[in-house]
Amino acid sequence: MYTLEEVKNYCKLCQKCDLYKNRTNVVFGEGNVKADIMFIGEGPGYNEDIQGRPFVGVAGQLLTKMIKAINLDRKDVYITNIVKCRPPNNRNPFEKESEKCIEYLRWQVKLINPKIIVCLGAVSGRNIISPNFRVTMDRGKWFKKGTFNIIATFHPAAILRDKSKKKPAWDDFKSIKAKYNELT
Ligand code: URA
Q: Which EC class heads this enzyme's classification (predicted)?
């Protein structure tokens, strides 16, 4: 068994895939290490790579607002990504990159042991819920794996690109809040 700090230190030295070659910083994740809710995005973008923190760009600001809208704060939850290094030009991570990186996420989930996991977008849903996950069909549904209650919603960047996703994403956040109230 490792501590979260140990896993982070290993991760910071990681060279298991080529994404390390272009990174400024590893973006391991941040927030409450005893969080009841964990948000999992896709991978760091430009700002995240520079700052070494997840969801700090425009999409991150929207995520922060949505978390506040359900009366929580970034400090209450834990936020991380499927891959910890920025894919070039924000492309989706390749499967072989996600497969190698997900070991770190498994440790994070095991050590933080959240009650609720929120997948942000299709890449996260495919890696966490099922390879057949389709965001338009499967968002807003609750899945149970072991003790984890898992839901996926639209990625905040997708909401920014397409305003029609705002209402369904807000419905998902209300469902997350209801589940949180039920479980805590
Ligand atoms: N998009 C993501 O999926 N993750 C981040 O950390 C930032 C943007």
A: hydrolase
